[in-house]
Amino acid sequence: MLLHAGCGLILALCLLFILPGCSVSETQSDTGGKTARPRESSVPVSVATSSRKDMPVEVQAVGSVEPFVAVGIKSQVAGVLEKVNFREGDPVKAGDLLFRIDPRPFDARLHQALAALAKDRAALDNARKQAARYRPAAEKGYVSEEQSDQAQTSVAVLAATVAADEAAVESARLDLDNCTIRAPISGYTGALLVDQGNLIKAEADQPLVTINQVKPIKVSFALSEQALPELKKYLAAGSLAVQAVPDGYRGEPLVGRISFLDNRVDAATGTIRLKATFANPDRILWPGQFVYVRLRLTTRRDATVVPARAVQTSQNGNFVYVVNPEQRVEMRPVTLGFSVAGESVIETGLAAGETVVTDGQLRLAPGVKVRLAEADTATGKTEATP
Question: Facing residues of 70 across strands?
Answer without folding.
Answer: 212
